[in-house]
Amino acid sequence: MRFVQNSPQMHTVLIRTFLFIFFISGLWTLRPVIVSQDLRLRAPGYGLLLGCIGVSAVVGAAVLPQIQRNIPIVDRQVILSTVVLALVMIALGYLRNPLVLGLLATIGGIAWMMLVSSFNVAAQEP
């Protein structure tokens, strides 16, 4: 606890994590509303969209080492994944095609995995 209180690097990681969780919670909050009211897909459609995120998180974990080799600076990884997630969230707010939303959810899941991984790396760096 004392380390976290006295470490400016940990403050940065915690602030970034808080902001990420605060804004990404809108995705989880509004997804059931969009699926049920706008897309009229019911529970199976909602499950498929969640499945796209889950599968893409697994794929993202598999391809993450290659991404990290191509973008070795953690701050750039955070910026890239944040921009991708922001664009995905904007698109999810406007688009109503289930196939396109599934593709976007897949892309968002990979970006999500990259962002969370970047936060974990930043928290463990000296």
Task: Describe what this molecule looks like in 3D.
There is one protein chain. With 126 residues, the chain is an all-alpha fold. The chain has one domain. Helices cover 90% and strands 0% of the residues. It contains five helices and no strands. The longest helix has 31 residues, at 8-38. The model has no long low-confidence stretch (mean pLDDT 90).
Shape: elongated
The major β-sheet equals:
none
Pairing-aware structural class of the strands and helices? mainly alpha
| Poorly predicted segments | none
- How many beta strands in the DSSP annotation? 0
Portion of residues in helices? Answer: over 70%
**Strand content bin:** under 5%
- Rg: 16 Å
- Which oligomerization state do the chains in this entry correspond to? single chain
Distance between the termini: 16 Å
Mean pLDDT, all residues:
90
Q: Report the order of strands and helices.
A: HHHHH
Number of domains: 1
| Number of alpha- plus pi-helical segments | 5
Summarize the structure.
The protein has 126 residues and is mainly alpha-helical. Helices cover 90% and strands 0% of the residues. It is elongated.
Task: Compile the SSE list and pairings.
Elements: H1 2-6, H2 8-38, H3 42-70, H4 74-94, H5 98-124
Helix pairs in contact: 2-3, 2-4, 2-5, 3-5, 4-5
